[in-house]
Design brief:
Blueprint: H1 3-33, E1 35-39, E2 53-58, E3 63-65, E4 72-75, E5 84-88, E6 96-104, E7 108-112, E8 115-118, E9 121-122, E10 146-150, E11 155-159, H2 169-172, E12 175-176, E13 180-190
Antiparallel strand pairs: 1-2, 2-13, 3-4, 5-6, 5-13, 6-11, 7-8, 7-10, 8-9, 11-12
């Protein structure tokens, strides 16, 4: 093989390596600061989000953090009531959870027989889904009946849309601003692993659906 051919081969190999490194750096930068992929592992947000939904999360919605840490560099905003957010699970910050914001700092929230009261008034709970008609008294569980609590500063009270099948603020408390990851934006893929028909594994109708 002539020297010129060897040099061209080396040049091509170098181009491939450089392209791969640049692509990896771009992916790292985007993943660290802008967009994060998230998969729904449980039924806690049904029927809004289903097991097997794959989401994109806007990491610049609320905070900017040092990559791969929870060290906040800047606060960019605060979630509004009704927004679906991804956050570090306060009991185990190595896990990410997804829930809907029900109350913000200064709000007083109470639950009476599954009805949510915010600052003394029953809310229009249009996202709430209830699959269990039984009512548990508050001394057994806060699921259906919860004494009034006031949300502390820089914190949020969150609940899963599947109110009877969600481990949320009723059980473990509030989400602090520093634990926010971002706002859920869109379903980019959805996979139904329980389908008996391989042709129905992909939920085509859910792809591209904005999360509200």
């Amino acid at each position: 093989m002539k020297d010129s051919q060897v040099n061209r081969t080396k040049s091509k190999t170098r181009e491939y390596i450089e392209s791969f490194i640049i692509a990896a750096l771009i992916a790292f930068f985007v993943r660290s600061f802008f967009i994060q992929a998230f998969k729904i592992p449980s039924s806690s947000m049904e029927p809004t989000l289903l097991i097997g939904d794959h989401l994109l999360v806007n990491r610049l919605s609320y905070v900017v953090k040092v990559p791969f840490t929870d060290i906040v560099l800047f606060n960019l905003g605060k979630p509004e009531r009704g927004e679906v957010i991804v956050f570090r699970y306060p009991v185990d910050t190595s896990k990410d959870f997804i829930k809907r914001v029900i109350a913000r700092e200064g709000d007083t929230i109470e639950i009476k027989n599954k009805v949510i009261y915010l600052n003394g008034s029953a809310i229009n709970d249009r996202y709430g889904y209830y699959s269990d008609n039984r009512l548990l008294p508050g001394f057994l569980s806060p699921k259906d009946n919860m004494e009034p609590v006031t949300v502390p500063p820089d914190s949020y009270f969150v609940m899963g849309d599947n109110r009877d099948r969600s481990l949320d603020s009723r059980f473990w408390g509030f989400v602090h601003q520093d634990h926010l990851v971002g706002r859920a934006l869109i379903i980019y893929f959805s996979w139904d692993g329980k389908s008996h028909n391989p042709l129905h594994y992909i939920r085509w109708g859910r792809i591209g659906r904005l999360i509200k």
